[in-house]
Amino acid sequence: MNNVIVYLDDAAHALQMLASMQAACSANGAVRWILVGYAPRVTHRVSKWVTHSARDNWRAKWAEKVFTQLTPLLQQGNDTVVTLLADSALPLALQTQTLCGQYGNAQVFDARRPKISHDMPPVSPLPAHKSRTLISYVMTLLGTGVLTAAD
Q1: Which of 20, 48, 36, 139 is nearest to 96 (CA)?
Q2: Is 103 exposed, middle or buried (CB count within 10 Å of its CB: 0-12, 13-18, 19+)?
Q3: pLDDT (tens digit per residue) in 24-45
Q4: 13, 91, 131 from 120: Cα distances, Å
């Protein structure tokens, strides 16, 4: 069984990203989708007036609403869905390592909605500077290819 860990924070955005990915993953056999909800942070002003239990209840209701929108799409054929709520105290890279230890090797997919001027924590143990180096390397190769083709 193939394992796919998906981090998400918005159901509509995740639906768009997962619709195209689902067919490719399911072509190789049954898939275990491990959906990890990354609830939006409560603002500082709100957190002063809300208890921890009320905040946890809100996170649980948010996760249930998001997961009920995604689960029917992913439970097709022999595919199974496991839903989890990300622990806000642990880095996502550590949570990914824990999930890979629990479920075996898995593909990790980040379906969180990008936010302007806000760095999102990485979901894999790969340091951020290496991924930036890879992106700059790929962009350089693409630019070189375009310039070569233009000649």
Answers
A1: 36
A2: middle
A3: 777 778 889 999 998 887 777 7
A4: 16, 11, 14
Say whether 98 sits in a helix, a strand or coil: helix
* CA dist 89 → 75, 86, 93, 94, 111 (Å): 30, 9, 12, 11, 20
What percent of the chain clears pLDDT 90, i.e. is strictly above it? 18
- Taking the alpha carbons of 46, 123, 82, 15 in that order, is the dihedral positive or negative? positive
Domains, the chain, ordered by start: 2-125 (3.40.50)
Three-state DSSP at 119 gives coil
Strands, E, within 9-139: which ranges? 31-37, 80-85, 107-110
Give this prediction's pTM: 0.72
